[in-house]
Give the backbone structure.
Amino acid sequence: ADGPLDLRLNPEAGISAAERLKTIDREELAGMLIENSDEPYAEEIARTITGAIRRGEKAETTLQVRALIEKALSFLPEKERKEAVKKACARTFQALRIDVNSEFEVLYAFLDKLPHILAPGGRAAILTFHSGEDRIVKKSFKEMYRAGRYSQVAGDVIRPSAEECRMNSRAHSTKMRGAIKADDSNS
């Protein structure tokens, strides 16, 4: 559906995704697409979007950005293109949403404070919804374990069952990781 390219969780704070695209260069956009959403066509999409904006084209609505992504992926064989565009759009909008809402920065801050707010022996379980979040949580838990702040971190990630995914299609990418606060009083 067409609509303004905003993506902010709080429309009163920060800048919209459309405004962000006006201020970003090709290299930074490609990096954002890779880091925030593992976009395999990050370079092509970033080149097309930033080039279009530089030429005065608009990237202010969801359909305008979708059209630019379709253009960026026009080199793909036609039978692969429709699905690739659909997935690239989802990943591009995800990357922009993460960026304009500083979602990773908020997650880093939370993970840094978590061992300080848990009681000794307290347990934390964190659900992640995409690989970028999961990497951050996994790395933080491992670092805090090595530093002695956690006495245990789950070695394996917990994933939803096939039944849960059938009942809730959005659950398929969810992962849960857990940690237990160390009893050491100086952590």
